[in-house]
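Deviation from plan, reported transparently: FE2/S2 (inorganic) cluster complex.
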Amino acid sequence: MSISLKINGRIQLVDADADTPLLWVIRDTLKLVGTKFGCGMAQCGACTVHLDGAAIRSCMIPVAAVAGKDITTIEGLSEREENSLQRAWIEEDVVQCGYCQSGQIMSAAALLAENPNPSDEAIDNAMSGNICRCGTYPRIRKAIRRAAAYAEDASL
Ligand code: FES
Ligand code: FES
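Because the crystal trials were delayed, the predicted structure below was used instead.
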């Protein structure tokens, strides 16, 4: 069936079975390969994207369920966030192998949109569903705090 998706601000018509996971459409049909496949069971966070601003696991949500909703992938976030989260990620040298990192950044972006100055506990809670096999968690926390500080400085 033909499904209308709004991805990164653009309407795209895709041909897919209604129950195809959104992740497959993002990666295989639309070739937005920044979003990763990890577990396929909503357990690792590698496939995290935003749905109407909230962080969701795209591996478990059928594409028909998100028709017409606002979907943002890491590629869409890159256009808007290069001055805060991405800068902080680079300056804290967060990335090791990199596989989990687009999911980490998408969860961090959803957190900061909702809570611009999160406590360590709020960071840990928001990021608890994003697994990093390389153990970059301390640097992720530092980068989120740094990005929050950039945003606060920019608002002064
Ligand atoms: S691939 Fe979706 S949560 Fe792991
Ligand atoms: S940086 Fe390697 S899995 Fe997170």
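The mean pLDDT is 94. We consider this an acceptable substitute for the interim report.
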